[in-house]
């Protein structure tokens, strides 16, 4: 009874959010004070000479900007079981693993109760605004969520992905219930280590609950697209399971078989309905609203490296709204999407001033060449001093610095954001790109966003062939003299040589960075190379990261593969069907 009384109240959540954002500067000072008071006994802060001071000026004067590499020794000691307060006042009980797609291996990040609570606050805040725009009933969500491998560190701490740490918590389960976002699938499906079996069962459970589904969700847009590409292959098997009331033999894990079989009953009528709807779809356009008629929207992170999947996602969703989920990382949360009706390409994230202390390094004063440099490489350059949350200027770009309750102090997140206005006194951020994901041979500097725009432009030439780019990545090949860009494409079907040649030239011309164009003209950078890889190549890359411990729903295709990421590079190079060189600057 108490749970019902204390249930979700969207109006109250929005009211509290409005109060926080009207007093963002004060809330930031109080949040920093709270972080430093709770963690003042930590060795890391003790050694920096704060001496109990908790004001922003003293904090900035004593505590240096850091990257993950700087904190690695401290986090490793925590993972190894040292009992001393190292980064936080209270003991860290678990470790989160990043996806590893950026650097080629997962990073260890502290996870604690405060980080869990800020996650729930973000979820509740964005849901309140989302539900005001598109109210949902008391149903369920078709969620393509997956856990990852869990293991114990040397010191006995649980180590797993950030999403799995969240899914394991009772607070998460209670929150999902409060906001009518319970998963169609039983826990055994979510926590299976075989994501192929989990995905099949997510689809099956979603179909069984088709009338109850209020929205479709996964952490990243890629996972939703992957789910429905899989659905195209297995839909007839799913219909058979529903018709007969017997789970497919492809599901071999006993716990999953038992849990899902409890939901299955012979239902020929539902199976026939699904079958008839599927056979009448044209190229699977609108499959989501067709099979889940009460779904109000599709929800997941759709910005940054997820933008290339939006076209396919819109194909599956038809006129169903796409809503981008909130802005955060394995290290911590930053902002909520409070404007859910904006298209994902225009999504902004309003910073919650009470979940961490935020600073921003201005980028407008840095020249273009320095602006996109790797964080490590700009040490030694004189860069502007970070400024506070309420001191940023509309329309300008910044690098994000976070200080969290989980022991990260003045931590360079590596993200570049643009200020897209304010909500009351707190800024709305638009994600621009990761700062360290760049293509460079000479004086050229092309970001992940530049790569994405180039691929979008060149892929238009495939439209006449009715061919689509399923996925892509890049590499800088310095084994040739001069070095050159390599773009890897996986295509939905074959394209004519002439079309691919035109695509390659288009890619080369689409990189408009002056350093690149000038270098190409004087032959300081070689012709761009387009490598077409076998179907399934990027699925092999996904499986590679899952085997390393990443969660399927946390996977992001690496957009720039360096030599340090040799395993992925080997997968790509061993899968090349054909190679085309550009004639654009001949």
From TrEMBL:
Record domain GH3 middle: where: 349-434
Record key words, sorted: Ligase
Record keyword Ligase present: yes
One term of GO molecular function: acid-amino acid ligase activity
InterPro entries registered for this protein in UniProt: GH3, GH3_C, GH3_M
Span of domain GH3 C-terminal: 449-561
Protein's UniProt keywords contain rRNA-binding: no
Family, per entry: Belongs to the IAA-amido conjugating enzyme family.
The name this protein goes by in its record: Jasmonic acid-amido synthetase JAR1-like
Originating species: Dendrobium chrysotoxum (Orchid)
Classification lineage: Eukaryota, Viridiplantae, Streptophyta, Embryophyta, Tracheophyta
């Amino acid at each position: 009874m108490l749970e019902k009384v204390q249930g979700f109240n969207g109006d109250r959540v929005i009211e509290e959010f409005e109060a926080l954002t009207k007093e963002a500067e004060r809330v930031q000072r109080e949040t920093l004070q709270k972080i430093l008071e709770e963690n003042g006994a930590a060795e890391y802060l003790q050694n920096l000479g704060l001496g109990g001071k908790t004001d922003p000026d003293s904090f900035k004067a004593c505590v240096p900007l850091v990257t993950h590499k700087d904190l690695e020794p401290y986090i490793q000691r925590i993972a190894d079981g040292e009992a001393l307060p190292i980064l936080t006042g209270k003991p860290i009980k678990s470790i989160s693993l990043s996806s590893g797609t950026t650097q080629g291996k997962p990073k260890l990040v502290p996870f604690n109760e405060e980080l869990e609570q800020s996650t729930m606050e973000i979820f509740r805040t964005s849901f309140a605004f989302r539900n005001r725009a598109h109210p949902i009933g008391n149903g369920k969500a078709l969620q393509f969520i997956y856990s990852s491998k869990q293991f114990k560190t040397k010191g006995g701490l649980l180590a797993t992905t950030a999403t799995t740490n969240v899914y394991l918590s009772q607070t998460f389960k209670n929150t999902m219930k409060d906001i009518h976002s319970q998963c169609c699938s039983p826990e055994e499906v979510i926590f299976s280590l075989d994501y192929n079996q989990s995905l099949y069962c997510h689809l099956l459970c979603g179909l069984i609950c088709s009338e109850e589904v209020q929205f479709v969700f996964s952490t990243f847009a890629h996972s939703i697209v992957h789910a429905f590409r899989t659905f195209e292959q297995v839909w007839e098997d799913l219909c058979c399971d529903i018709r007969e009331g017997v789970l497919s033999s492809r599901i071999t894990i006993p716990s999953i078989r038992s849990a899902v079989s409890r939901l299955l009953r012979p239902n020929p009528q539902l199976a026939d309905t699904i079958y008839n709807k599927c056979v009448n779809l044209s190229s699977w356009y609108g499959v989501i609203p067709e099979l889940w008629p009460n779904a109000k929207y599709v929800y997941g992170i759709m910005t940054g490296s997820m933008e290339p999947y939006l076209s396919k996602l819109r194909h599956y969703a038809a006129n169903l709204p796409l809503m981008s989920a909130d802005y955060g990382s394995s290290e911590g949360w930053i902002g909520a999407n409070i404007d859910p009706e904006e298209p994902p390409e225009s999504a902004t994230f309003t910073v919650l001033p009470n979940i961490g202390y935020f600073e921003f390094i201005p980028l407008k004063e840095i020249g273009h060449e320095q602006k996109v440099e790797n964080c490590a490489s700009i040490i030694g350059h004189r860069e502007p001093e970070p400024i506070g949350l309420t001191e940023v200027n509309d329309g300008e770009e910044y690098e994000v610095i976070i200080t969290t309750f989980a022991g990260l102090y003045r931590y360079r997140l590596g993200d570049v954001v643009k200020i897209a206005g304010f909500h009351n006194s707190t800024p709305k951020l638009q994600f621009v790109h990761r700062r360290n994901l760049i293509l460079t041979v000479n004086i050229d500097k092309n970001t992940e966003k530049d790569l994405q725009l180039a691929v979008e432009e060149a892929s238009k030439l495939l439209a006449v062939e009715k061919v689509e780019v399923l996925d892509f990545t890049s590499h800088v090949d310095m084994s040739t003299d001069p070095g050159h860009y390599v773009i890897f494409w996986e295509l939905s079907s074959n394209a004519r040589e002439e079309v691919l040649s035109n695509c390659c030239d288009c890619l080369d011309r689409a990189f408009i960075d002056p350093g690149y164009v000038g270098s190409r003209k004087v032959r300081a950078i070689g012709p761009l190379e387009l490598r077409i890889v076998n179907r399934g190549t990027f699925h092999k890359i996904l499986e590679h990261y899952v085997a390393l411990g990443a969660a399927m729903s946390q996977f992001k295709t690496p957009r720039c593969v360096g030599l340090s990421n040799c395993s992925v590079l080997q997968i790509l190079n061993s899968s090349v069907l054909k190679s085309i060189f550009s004639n654009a600057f001949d």
